[in-house]
Amino acid sequence: MIEAFSVTLNPARIIFGRGAVDRLASEVARIGARRALVLSTPFQKADAERLASSLGKAAAGVFAEAVMHTPICVTERALALFEAAGADCVVSFGGGSTIGLGKAIAWRNDTPQIVVATTYAGSEVTPILGETTDGLKTTRRDHRILPEAVIYDPDLTVSLPVGMSVSSGLNAMAHAVEALYAQDRNPVSSWQAIEGIGALKKALPRIVAKAEDIDARSLALYGSWLCGTVLGTVGMALHHKLCHTLGGSFDLPHAETHAILLPHSAAYNAPAAEEALRPAADLFGGSLSGGLHDFASSLGAPLALRDLGLAESDLDRAADLAVENPYWNPRPIEHDGIRALLQDAWEGTRPS
Ligand code: NAD
């Protein structure tokens, strides 16, 4: 029998496939906009400028100062340019950092957003925005934050370096693993989660073997869309809370932190969510935590928090912060268990 559920689905317009980026101009016109401000990080500036040129008169300019964690001071500069250039929509070209900037603008002025997604982080299909000011991160959820349209063109992901592709793909899988045991899961979110994990599990080894394997790039992007979709639909728990703490308080890089912690958070929650996690465990030879560790290791992913520069002496404070505010998790959050989890993740030991 299907268990009772209730769900609010996010509206999503998805344009997927090779060459999909060529449809950007028609998507701008479709939402009734005439002057798009194109956003990117400094690293992707040249590509963002090419994209803006492809829009011709429909381009209001390029703002290429997006950075990780969406600092409000950067948003304010982007908003000033948006107004000065007479823009009426944003095109976010990039990963979660650029998409975060587009969301921060839209949260303030309700401008429509079109995202051209180039990593696997999944932010493009969530109504969630995390912003920082004076080192403090706040997260909010609002319908204005959800982008109006998303373009997924696998050709644009070939340039994502292999190491970042792996970490970003594991970041996407983490959304799906937590979606499987979410309190508010439903049959569709669980199906999307498993389909997403399965796609990434097939795609990532092929990308490691050959970065320009376009079939694998396409499969990974498909998986990341599904994983991002469940992130935007159901609640996250221990894993995302820990990553939020480590990213926010210790300035650890987002995707790599997710990649390292995933096997350990899965190990912590496995005893309390065995049934819900079984389809994912089956994909990894029966043990999700050990299987994820071996998978990450085979891809050359970072395995230990110490390799990201976290000091062992920080682990006590990290554990204290992680248990500070209560939240739902399939297994109760116990300080000693979380401290042990962090020690294992710091050392990079294989969870059983
Ligand atoms: P990112 O956006 O910071 O990108 C990392 C680097 O890779 C950047 O320099 C970027 O320019 C470059 N890059 C991106 N795509 C590339 C490509 N195809 N080729 C070459 N270089 C490329 O990394 P991310 O992991 O996508 O995003 C992390 C941020 O997103 C964090 O701040 C995180 O909190 C946020 N995030 C938010 C949500 C949400 O739902 N709100 C979801 C996931 C991530």
From TrEMBL:
Residues 166-346 form the Fe-containing alcohol dehydrogenase-like C-terminal domain. GO terms for molecular function: alcohol dehydrogenase (NAD+) activity; maleylacetate reductase activity; metal ion binding. Residues 11-154 form the Alcohol dehydrogenase iron-type/glycerol dehydrogenase GldA domain. InterPro entries: ADH_Fe/GldA, ADH_Fe_C, Alcohol_dehydrogenase_Fe, MAR. Keywords: NAD, Oxidoreductase. Belongs to the iron-containing alcohol dehydrogenase family. This is Maleylacetate reductase. It comes from Tianweitania sediminis.
